[in-house]
Every structure is written in C-alpha cells, then in structure tokens.
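Consider this:
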Amino acid sequence: MRNQSILCPTDFSPTASHAITYAVEMAEFYHVKVQLLHVVNKPFGDKHTRVFAETPDELIERMEKQAAEQMQEYIETLDANLPIESMICHGEVVPTILASAKQMNAGMIVIASHGRTGLNHFLNTNTAEKIVNKAYCPVLVVK
C-alpha cells in the first residue's frame, strides 16, 4: 500500500464524492496517486426492446463523453497536492473495477456504499459488498 496507487471508483453520487475525499487524504498521507474510475454500464433495451432513439454504440459513446466531462469537473474541484488520474471504462461494474485494480496493481480500493438495507438492499446489487468479497487488495468502504 505504501508505494502503490489507490483506486477509487465513482458513480458521481454524493456518497462517492465523500469516498473520494478519503482516498485523496490517504494518498496524500502515503504520497501515492489516486486513480478515479467510472464504469459505463451496458445500456438497457438494446436490440430486444427497440426503445432507443440512437444506436447502443452511440448511446455508450454519449455516456462516456458525459462521464468524462463530469470526471474533469470533479477533479478540478479537488484540492489535492498529488497526482489524480481518471479512467472511464465500459462493461459490467464489479468485474471492471476488479480488473482495473489488478491491472494497476492497486494498493487499496476506496469505494462508497450507499447504505441500502432491507428490501432496497435485496433489490439493488451492492457493488461495494461484491468488491470487498472479491478484491485481492484492502478495500475501504465509505458510507
């Protein structure tokens, strides 16, 4: 951890922004860089339901462009004295986060948990929980 980067996935939610502040603080303490990651998930609807006004490829391209703009705006608001890099990938969220952590040899993953409980937890996949269970490196979950 002391000489490896910190991976911080974000969905641009307020909870994820809170997790990024933890990642930046830890990175400044250890003098390592932060790698922000946003995963553009496969859009719903594609060839089976025909609900798109644009093709799935056009939609993914638009989603990636919007995510890049949001990422740049967010990085500009951070008051960090260290390198912050960003990466936008598309695919399934959990496998993409885990593959990115492994590829960059992350020393730690800092991820937000939306704190869902009960039926809401049952109906919505818990990305943070899956990352904790499958990651090879330490994971800090921020609520």
In short: The longest strand covers residues 34-40. The chain has six helices and five strands. Residues 6-142 form a domain with the Rossmann fold fold (CATH 3.40.50.620).
